[in-house]
Amino acid sequence: MASKKVEAKNRSTHMTEANGNVFVDLGFSGSDAIVMQMKIDIHTEIVRIVRSKRMKSRELERLFDEPQPRISELMRGKIAKLSITKLTDYAAKLGIRPKITFERSRAA
Question: What is the pTM of this model?
Answer without folding.
Answer: 0.70
